[in-house]
Amino acid sequence: MKFKILKANKKHIKEIQEISTQQFGLLGWAPNFFESELKNENHFFYVVVVNQCVENIQDNNGLVNSNIFLKKEKKGFINPCQKIVGFINFMQTEGELGLDFNILNIATREEFKNKGVASALINFVFKLAKQRKFKSVWLEVRCSNNVAIHLYQKLGFQQLYIRKNYYSNGEDAIIFRKIF
Ligand SMILES: CC(C)(COP(=O)(O)OP(=O)(O)OC[C@H]1O[C@@H](n2cnc3c(N)ncnc32)[C@H](O)[C@@H]1OP(=O)(O)O)[C@@H](O)C(=O)NCCC(=O)NCCS
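Above are the sequence and the coenzyme A SMILES. Below is the predicted complex in structure-token form.
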């Protein structure tokens, strides 16, 4: 699957909210949260976008390439084929190894899971962190979230410690850190 990672903007909020509700339900953030996150200069918000029309046409006869999609975007057309399939937001913090990134939230649209969307987003955060000469990226995850834990371990995160009763339902949080 071909996709692009873009800086999130106001036009993306509806779809980000849709994915958040789908993936987190009542545990998700309030609707106005995403708008305030976009305005927060110390926070970073990115989305994964696919062009479903190009994907479909390429699959069938290979006649259309993604340049058409890009040209249309540059001219400012709203492309009905464009779909947000995942998002990530993170912030800069300072830890024992110096400045780092803390991943606050990541989610993938249900029907696009297990296609490498979240892996691409996290690798993108690693790239940004390395560009800034940060030594680490960290995050917290519910101890019951086996899929996310599998993903973080696959990408080289290691368990740092456990925060007992961290979530409102009494669940523990595992703090994972990736050191470069
Ligand atoms: C966690 C999440 C972001 C992963 O997104 P994704 O785009 O599907 O991730 P990727 O495709 O990059 O990788 C998924 C990995 O999980 C694995 N996986 C899928 N289901 C699994 C399961 N039930 N148990 C263990 N691993 C599982 C996949 O096989 C894949 O690993 P692999 O590459 O070794 O095969 C997504 O499942 C999601 O949105 N979950 C709900 C929100 C959430 O929990 N966010 C994290 C909060 S800390």
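The domain at 4-179 is CATH 3.40.630.30 (Aminopeptidase).
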